[in-house]
Amino acid sequence: MPTKSEGSSADRRSPRNRFWTLSPLDFRYYGADNEFFHRLYPYVSEEAYIKYQLKVEATLATTLANSNWQLCSIEQADEIINACEQVTASEVYEEEERVNHAVRALVNCIQRKVTAKAKPYVHLFATSNDITDSASALRLKELTINVIVPDLVELEMLLISLARKYANVPQIGRTHGQHAEPITFGFALASYVSRLLGRIQRIIDCAENLQGKFSGSVGAYNALSLIDESNAPLFEQQLLDKLGLKRSERYISTQIVQPEYLTDLAYSVISCFSVLANLADDIRHLHRTEIAEVEQAYNVHDIGSSTMPHKVNPKNFEQVKSMWKMTMPRMVTVFMDQISEHQRDLTNSASGRFLIELFVAFDYSTNRLVSAFEMVKANAENMRTNLETSMDRLISEPLYILLALNGFSEAYRRVRELVEESETTKIPIAELIWEKHDIRPILQKLRHDQVETLKDPTKYVGVSRQRALETAAQAEESIVMILGSYIRGSVDASSLVSFREERRPSYENMRALHENVTTPTDSVKIFFYGSFMDLEVLRTLGVVPRTFETAELKNWNITFSPMATLDPSEGDSVYGIIAELSRAEVRTLYSRDDLKHYKPVDITAATKRNKHVPAQCYISKPRTGQKPSVEYLQRVIHAAENLGFPPAYLTQLRRTPTTQTSNS
């Protein structure tokens, strides 16, 4: 092994050779699949984790420089951003060996690359976990949305196509490992289409709900309160808005982010992994020689045994189940990591570093399952042959139901007697029933299709075909809705390819942070959400926007007291317009006596083109017990209607209580 001095040299044995690594994920799976590796390492590698921390530090600098704080200059913020683009993981780790603290090492590396005037603003007001927890949330959110979800959707679309393809192919249903009643193979696959779809939605919801924090060493905003005690949480909100993360529930945390939201995401992934393992296990069983309802094409290069040349094993399906067995128990560790004494301890530090492996193993298995399904096909002939081996016994349920429907009081017991008699005499039940005087009269009253089912139970598949096709169609529609925030239009192989190519880790575009610094230039973008959404109202006040477009502001809620204002509210949205005004117009507008109590905050709103636009938004503290006038509320509703905002939002506005007397 290398000595310590050799370890610091250029010829050091490093993970660049995957066979020197410890984890099978590195040397056999993730690290051995070049295409998969290059898609994931920008998110899951240690280099990536440090880049995400640098992204948070750079975003902190832009927030410090923004016009409503102006704690550092734009030039100083630019220096910090430029430095964050240049710092590497190797630099940080070398510095950590010297100072024995990971985040302080990161800060030192940034400070070395900026001037003395900019140094004080690096990491200002931050504690380590403000940076690391926010970086972890951001990278897991982007990994999930940019990589894992498209891979799951690709698998879902493949299962949908197979459910349709085999919707009419009869197969024996199995319970407790034994033949039960007929279904179709497409119906069996449609069950997994439905289960997987629900898990995809849950994973997206949990990823979008991940939270960051910037509340200091014990979560009480101690450092930020030195500059503005009343607005300390607002600084956190603005920083996290720029990162695209939610804040801690009710602006409260300890030194660390509330762990339940990351736990929810990990659980949703494990739950989905269990669906994949169940599917893989079912298909593996269907490969059995004595069943042979699914088969894999023989490939001379695909060796199934070192001594049996004929073997072709369902190894891809087996591997998915095996990977699930390795990963699933780690959920216990995630649950245990929810516990951190008082405001924080380090008992979840080492264990938490392994969490990323859970996501890598899951996505690798998703890709492996896609490849596996592309190489197998159903053997419809064997499915029918297997079904027919239980042909005579399959008659028992439809016979019992038809007898009961026609008033036979002990129908179930009578059919059990027929099964026993058939076993003893070896006479098929389908023949016995026509010899029984208590049963034949009922059989003669049945419809033709009911009689045909008793003659040929392979037709007794219920609504398998219809449910398979309807489930497939509904799943396709749901995918479009679920991914509507990320992919415009139809969701198909082509759009998934484009999505994967377009979505990159946000740290790769730190230059965009320069644009997020709102500065005292000639113009400013304002998010209007009340009566000022009506451009005619603005014009009567001498304000003419240079440009405007509709936008959605997430995690805020509109209230009236008596005029419109906003409150932070997780999961809610406010709709309005982003208008570009001159700074003189903004000063004129908000110097009015009735608007002086409105104060600007920095926000980021999403336009219809899904572009996230930094802007300012003026809000005031709600005035207790005051309601809007009918006329004022109607102006807001009328503007919202004309701008085409969602019906649910219009309904919310219309339900606002008003005063009976009108005022503006």
Explain this structure.
By secondary structure, this protein is an alpha+beta fold. It has 4 domains: 37-126, Fumarase/aspartase (N-terminal domain) (Fumarase C, Chain B, domain 1, Orthogonal Bundle); 129-341 and 349-385, Fumarase/aspartase (Central domain) (Fumarase C, Chain A, domain 2, Up-down Bundle), CATH 1.20.200; 391-459; 521-654, Gamma-glutamyl cyclotransferase-like (Hypothetical upf0131 protein ytfp, Roll), CATH 3.10.490. It contains 30 helices and 9 strands. The strands form 3 sheets. It has a 5-stranded antiparallel beta sheet. A hairpin with a 2-residue loop joins strand 1 and strand 2 (178-184). The chain is globular, with a radius of gyration of 32 Å. The model is unreliable at 1-15 (pLDDT under 50).
Quick take:
The protein is an alpha+beta fold and 664 residues long. It has helices spanning 4-7, 24-29, 34-44, 46-65, 74-86, 89-99, 102-111, 128-165, 185-208, 225-228, 232-243, 260-286, 315-327, 330-336, 349-352, 355-374, 380-388, 391-394, 396-405, 411-425, 429-432, 440-443, 448-455, 464-482, 493-502, 512-515, 535-540, 583-590, 630-642, 647-654; strands at 170-175, 178-184, 294-296, 376-378, 523-528, 547-560, 564-582, 599-607, 612-619.
